[in-house]
Design goal:
The complex is a heterodimer.
Chain A: H1 4-30, H2 38-57, H3 61-78, H4 86-106, H5 113-131, H6 140-144, H7 148-151, H8 156-167, E1 171-180, H9 184-195, E2 199-206, E3 215-224, H10 228-235, E4 239-243, H11 290-295, H12 311-340, H13 348-376, E5 377-379, H14 381-398, E6 402-407, E7 412-414, H15 415-436, H16 440-445, E8 452-461, E9 464-471, H17 478-487, H18 493-497, H19 501-506, H20 529-538, E10 542-548, E11 552-560, E12 566-573, E13 576-581, E14 585-591, E15 597-599, E16 602-607, E17 610-616, H21 617-620, E18 631-638, E19 641-647, E20 649-656, H22 662-665, E21 671-676, E22 682-686, H23 688-700
Chain B: H1 2-15, H2 25-28, E1 45-51, E2 54-59, E3 63-68, E4 82-88, E5 91-96, H3 98-101, E6 122-126, E7 133-137, E8 139-145, E9 164-170, E10 173-178, H4 180-184
Classes of the chains: A alpha+beta, B alpha+beta.
């Protein structure tokens, strides 16, 4: 067994490779039906290859074996030995899933037999795909006539690309360039850059007629359907262009633009992926009945707790630290002056300088703080990619016709939050597909487009990020929601009488609520929206529902950009001090005891016409109650809940870093941790989410 | 011919494809064999301290550091023998009052800082796999060496004595050896 450190590094590295692989396969999937971009195929092949090598080195034989099969089939695919079929793409998608599962199992969980079975079936599928499909047709390359001396140096893959180009009637050119030895690599790269938009650079061969000692000549074998003079114009003085083939090319098929555009290597800032169930072959994987797969749906969180960081961000951190060192030196000097002038009063200049340095220190520390926060930020595309993959499969299984739109993947959030988001988002998307979007026939009856739309959209709004999961389906039925909530004993009939539609919708967040009596195969796992809500509360997030009957539903999630450093309101109860995360505070009011009312003996206050529970922090924590002639009430708004938290005094706002209370005290209800304020004292930070849950519990028992 | 070899090297670099590379993992691989098991050696040195009228001791290896009593922030909703949390250079750590746990005192103490304790009082910060924790002691006596072979098991006096691991004697004085894990539980 590998020691834990090596294992965790393996998992982190393998996970990274796997994520690249998954992303590229997703792009390939999105381009279904079109000819695959050879660069993309190569990238996928390389990822499978690295994964194989990596896992073999760490003795992860299951992963290595499957990656090996994957590599074989991808090799055959990029060499054109097997066609780019739907079955093949389906099995690649399944491959990514199984490899992810295996990696998860390798990193801790026990290896499950189910995963093994899926892997075996998949390996057979890959083997069948890789061996089949070889066509014995006459080689088109023989017909066009290529200089045998040149042809003999082509690799199998290059020959395949040549063949593909000839089949499409694309002309082949030999682009000859002579470069100096000192900079030939850059100049060759720029030549490649010029040629790429016009066609495909199939091979780069050192020329058979080298130039003088100080230079080197290359023959770029180039396939392009553009006329010769256009290519010549493009390369200008860099190179000469000559036909590669001796016989004239058959004027095959009308001239077309190059079939593939180079795939974006980086996830595009805004990308839209499309899924259409009926166009696709049903997913066939006999060993994995959909029921089982649903039950065992793995969490989409990534396995590694690492963050890949752009080196420039680290550089800017280093710069800031360098500047901080200068400030330190200055302060040190000032301290020396102060020491030497003991007894005599210090010059005014000294005080001014000290003040200047202290301001500089403050500024640099702010920069440093922002820099570190920046490093923790990752784009949402990391989780959106996984969700898109999952949705594609779910849509296929559902038999519904759905267009899945993703946008805003470039929005960045703290790594921790992005990880925690994957499961709630998956849940909301499943709900949209399962409960939201109607079957095509029903949609047509209602005069809608047969194809439904599910949208996953992110945007940054100041210090917060808004993520929206929307569908244009049937919308939520509040009468049905009320009925179910009463049936389940979650609320009393009377209580629902006064509820507005919006509040009725919010009943779906109660634990134990699930609208459909027939547990659906897609989203029915007995886990309700309450889990989504709890997860969000943990992230200090808010969730809102907008729903119109017949028009669709929108869940809007509002999240802070980071959890690492937060702004907090410091409050006092008696002689105790507490910090309340400011992102959950909506406003602060002051209330006289005479303004308190009670409902069923619970205290409430009226805040501009809205009745809110009034909760004394001193009572929650069994502290001595002070008799005041007025209370400061911090109005807490978390997800859908609002309540007023009464404290004795407000002490101000601070930027805080919440630290856990040491291993033994974690999980004290209502306390998220402690933080250090100016005087180095530990101040407890309230866990607002837990307090909200606590408040709700007795209420739920009423029904 | 010298230029030729340089030329070859350049070409090689140029046509090199990263397909075959697995990164820096080769260097890591030998580490797999390097997990060395450490033999658990019983400690002979103990840190002795006073709690009320009794003298207790913990293995010196379990002590992280000894602190002057800091400001302790009490935490609601925890067991009464938890005094609260303290800030040790940015780390938040719990502080325990063992007197109640060891039946040396009836009522839970309320200690919120250096002003609430006698001058000699200290917080002994103990290492523990469940999370390091401090214990408030009345006085630190120093390090004692106790021959392992002469340690006695804890006598059964009834009551909750699980926190006592054994007894040691030196120069006629009795040292009660504390089972840290049990004492903090």
């Amino acid at each position: 067994m590998a020691p834990p450190r090596a294992l965790s590094e393996f998992v982190a590295e393998a996970n990274e490779v796997l994520e690249t692989l998954a992303h590229d396969v997703a792009v390939l999937d999105a381009q279904r039906g079109r000819e695959a971009d050879p660069d993309l195929l190569n990238a996928i092949f390389r990822a499978a290859h690295s994964l194989k090598g990596l896992s073999a080195m760490f003795g992860q034989e299951r992963i290595s074996a499957l990656a090996h099969h994957l590599e074989d089939v991808l090799d055959a695919l990029r060499l054109g030995k097997v066609p780019n079929s739907d079955t093949l793409i389906d099995s690649l998608l399944e491959g990514v899933d199984v490899l992810t599962l295996m990696l998860r199992e390798a990193s801790g969980d026990a290896a499950s037999a189910e995963t093994g079975r899926r892997a075996n079936t998949l390996a057979e599928t890959f083997a069948r795909l890789a061996s089949g499909g070889q066509s014995g047709a006459a080689d088109v390359l023989d017909e066009v006539g290529i200089d045998p001396a040149i042809r003999s140096v082509f690799t199998e893959y290059e020959e395949h690309r040549l063949r593909e180009n000839v089949k499409k009637g694309v002309a082949l050119w030999k682009v000859r360039a002579v470069f100096g030895l000192d900079d030939f690599d850059q100049r060759l790269a720029s030549l490649n850059g010029l040629l790429k938009p016009l066609g495909e650079v199939i091979s780069t061969l050192p020329s058979s007629q080298p130039g003088d000692e100080a230079s080197i000549a290359f023959d770029l074998i180039f396939g392009s359907s553009r006329p010769k003079d256009e290519i010549e114009r493009t390369v200008a003085s860099l190179a000469t262009v000559a036909p590669l083939t001796q016989k004239a090319m058959k004027p095959a098929a009308p001239m077309r633009e190059p079939e593939f555009t180079p795939a974006p290597r980086k996830p595009a800032p805004l990308f839209i992926q499309e899924v259409s169930a009926p166009d696709l072959q049903p997913y066939q994987q006999s060993s994995s009945p959909s029921g089982v797969m649903q039950g065992a749906e793995p969490s989409l969180r990534s396995l590694a707790q690492t963050v890949r960081v752009d080196i420039s961000r680290l550089d800017s951190l280093m710069n800031t630290i360098g500047e901080l060192l200068t400030v330190r030196a200055n302060i040190h000097r000032l301290a020396e002056v102060a020491k030497q002038s003991s007894g005599t009063p210090l010059p005014k200049l000294w005080a001014q300088e000290l003040q200047k340095e202290s301001r500089a220190l403050e500024r640099k520390l702010d920069e440093l703080q922002n820099g570190v926060l920046d490093v923790r930020m990752v784009p949402l595309v990391q989780v959106f990619d996984k969700l898109a993959r999952l949705m594609r499969r779910l849509v296929r299984q559902s038999g519904k016709d759905v267009h899945f739109e993703v946008s805003g993947g470039d929005v960045e959030l703290d790594k921790l939050i992005v990880e925690e988001l994957s499961d709630p988002l998956m849940h909301l998307l499943r709900n949209a597909l399962d409960h939201g979007i109607e079957i095509p026939e029903r949609r047509i009856e209602q005069g809608k487009d047969a194809r439904g739309v599910i949208r996953l959209k992110a945007q940054q709004l100041g210090n917060q990020v808004q993520i929206e999961v929307g569908d244009d389906g049937s919308g939520m039925d509040e009468t049905r929601i009320r009925q179910v909530a009463i049936e389940r004993g979650l609320v009393t009939h009377e209580a629902t009488e006064e509820l507005e539609r919006r509040d009725l919708l919010n009943l779906v967040f109660l634990p134990g609520f699930s609208t459909r009596s027939d547990v659906s195969e897609l989203s029915g796992r007995g886990v309700g929206l309450d889990v989504v809500k709890t997860n969000l509360s943990r992230l200090s997030g808010l969730i809102d529902i907008e729903s119109k009957r017949g028009e669709g539903t929108r869940f809007v999630l509002t999240l802070p950009l980071t959890l690492a450093i937060i702004r907090a309101l410091v409050v006092a109860v008696g002689d105790r001090t507490f910090a309340v995360p400011l992102n959950s505070v909506t406003e602060i009011v002051s209330v006289k005891p005479s303004q308190l009312r009670t409902i069923e003996r619970r205290e409430v206050i009226d805040v501009r016409g809205q009745t809110l529970p009034f909760v004394r922090l001193s009572r929650i924590f069994n502290l001595r109650e002070s008799t005041a002639d007025r209370y400061f009430v911090v109005i807490i708004g978390l997800a859908q809940e609002r309540f007023g938290l009464a404290v004795d005094a407000l002490l101000g706002q601070e930027d805080i870093v919440t630290k856990p209370l040491g291993g033994r005290l974690t999980g004290v209800p209502g306390i998220a941790g402690a933080t250090e304020l100016g005087d180095r004292r530990a101040v407890l930070v309230l866990d607002v989410g837990a307090l909200v849950e606590e408040l709700k519990r007795p209420q739920a028992a009423v029904g | 011919m010298a230029p030729r070899t340089r030329f070859d090297a350049l070409l090689e670099r140029f046509f090199y494809r990263p397909d075959e590379t697995v990164g820096a993992w080769l260097e890591l691989a030998p580490e797999i064999a390097d997990s060395i098991e450490e033999v658990d050696e019983l400690p002979e040195e103990f840190l002795a301290f006073e709690l009320s009228t009794e003298t207790y001791a913990v293995p010196i290896g379990a002590v992280r550091e000894i602190l002057k009593v800091p400001i302790i922030t009490s935490v609601p909703r925890v067991a009464s023998h938890v005094l609260g949390v303290m800030n040790v250079r940015g780390e938040m750590l719990p502080v325990y009052d063992l007197k109640q746990r060891l039946n040396l005192e009836e009522a839970p103490a309320r200690v919120e800082g250096p002003n609430d304790v006698p001058r000699g009082a200290r917080v002994v910060l103990l290492k523990d796999p469940e999370g390091d924790a401090g214990i408030l002691v009345d006085k630190v006596r120093g390090v004692v060496r106790l021959p392992l072979s002469k340690l006695e098991p804890a006598p059964s006096l009834g009551g909750d004595r699980r926190a006592v691991a054994g007894l040691g004697r030196q120069d006629g004085e009795l040292f009660i050896l504390l089972d840290v894990e049990q004492a903090l539980a």
